[in-house]
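Input record (one chain):
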Amino acid sequence: MNPVTWLSVAWKIIKSGPNILVIPWWVSFWAPQFWVISFLVKIFSNTKIVFLCHNVVEHESNSVDKILTRIVLRNGDGFIVHSEEDKNNLLAMFPRAKVLKAFHPTYEVFDLGNSNANHVRKRLGIDGNMVLFFGFIRPYKGLKYLILALPKVLSQVKVTVLIVGEFWKDKDEYLHMIKGLGLENNIVIVDQYVPNEEVQDFFSAADLVVQPYVSATGSGIVQTAFAFNKPVVATEVGSLPEIIEDGKTGYLVPAEETKELARAIVTFFVERKSEEFSKNIEKVKYRFSWDRMVDCIEQLSIDLRNC
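The corresponding structure, as predicted from the sequence alone:
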């Protein structure tokens, strides 16, 4: 937040003279900082600037967010995106941009290997089938559709939904929905920021991860789930259909369709797909390796040097 540090960072980069500066981009909150740093590096060095776009334009953005995004990304020499949708979004802004698509790598760093799933479940008061919803709670993530689908699930199979993440707004709306549907005994909420060291506790304890997104480009949550070989039920938005193999590593359902969402969750537990899907995830995780991301950055570096 301190502008002095932006200048300090820019100076250190300029002084060290790297071939490439990689800047992660996902929300316009970073516009002032990253614009200053990228502008100074571009003016006072030969370093090429690559924006690693988790989102080209952030979710639930307004016109100001889009303007700020365009101003900052204009300083980029090359771009890496995680989905075809974001590639198209970027090329709509900058038709001549050098852009490569690379899947979001798997977050294996969270698996510290010392988590005890049974202990975690006991601490949370959960037994039996467990569904995990993880991450910031914002409208586009579709948590309300999971809540609305839960009565349909419970009519056929007993499950507990664990909701982990900070509510950005309207927490009371979700609590009223849960109470109105009589789901207080079937939903556990952990409303807090989760440190890296504790991420494994929740994923290792879960049977299934659910991402009922209304809209999306990429997702770090599905890659965290895959790090623990946990199957995912997700909606057919953004890059999720490119990552999840329907019927093999999870299930894909239409967005905002509670009936289909409930059916997928029920099918997973009734047909006991956990072991099968986990083995399938283990076989395909190489597609999302960090080595592949390194190769992508190196290839983009060569292309930019030859410009």
